[in-house]
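Sorry to interrupt, but I need a hand with the structure work. Go ahead and set the record down below:
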Amino acid sequence: MRSAGVIGGGAWGTALALVCSRAGLSVTLWARETEVVAGINNDHENAIFLPGISLDPAVRATGDMADLAEADLILNVTPAQHLRGSLAAFAPHARPGVPMLLCAKGVEQASLKLMTEVLAETLPNAAPAVLSGPSFAGEVARGLPTAVTLACPDQVLGRALAEAIGTPTFRPYLAADMIGAEIGGSVKNVLAIACGIVEGRGLGRSAHAALITRGFAEMSRMAVALGGEAETVAGLCGLGDLVLTCSSPQSRNMSVGLALGAGQTLGEALAGKVSVAEGVASAPAVRLLAAKLKVETPICEAVAAILAGEADVDEAIAGLLSRPIRTER
């Protein structure tokens, strides 16, 4: 593989374009915003979404999906709720069998489908893979050491993708279980909002640790119910990403929770943010999907209720703390 097309000019898409460039690939990045395209091509910086990071001049930006048609692999890094639209826009230019590495973390609200299911419906001839794991865009862009999960049911393709984008500081670990990787990335965003609420409310480190642990149990139950593997979720794409996202205000989702825990409204918590906090959109979808699967996810349900205005923070916390004593599993 010699060339990569990146769909999505946000912070994560820009960071992954840099990763691909460092790995020796020719990179074309598609962005919706004309100012992002101009900034990358003229100033070698995405000043809107990833300010202060110098980009390799070899990274070329475009506003035309057709410019990605000949790429050897495509990384789709648009937010989860916009994935279907971006895939539909790329469809007329997609070669049959093109490897599509899905980098969004979420569950589609309208359909309750995972990103691989959306891909199967919109680009059925693409070869799917999932990239997920503990990774902050700014750190990856600066070349700090990062390890992620690259899940692909085709082992030969998975290894080829890992070798194509991997570098000494960006290490993809291979897995075959795309469902586990997707659920890990989706649910951890919702749990990060919960952890932010705990921190913002000043409930202490013990409560924070308990929430991460019990949240991980919810994540594992959902993955297994969908046909994924608990072992996958126990890796970088589940537990690893959960620890990172739930432990730093640098996380967009945790920062929303911090604001909610401190007494702000959802509108106030989201004001001024240019990047998407995926957990806000995924929370209601995760709650509905869990109900459909008959899987207990009380923490995710509490977050969804808070975001929907069905319960305030204190009511949701009281509800969790009053649940019956049960065996840990």
Summary: The first helix runs from residue 11 to 22. Strands lie at 3-7, 26-30, 60-62, 73-76, 99-102, 127-132, 146-151, 170-175.
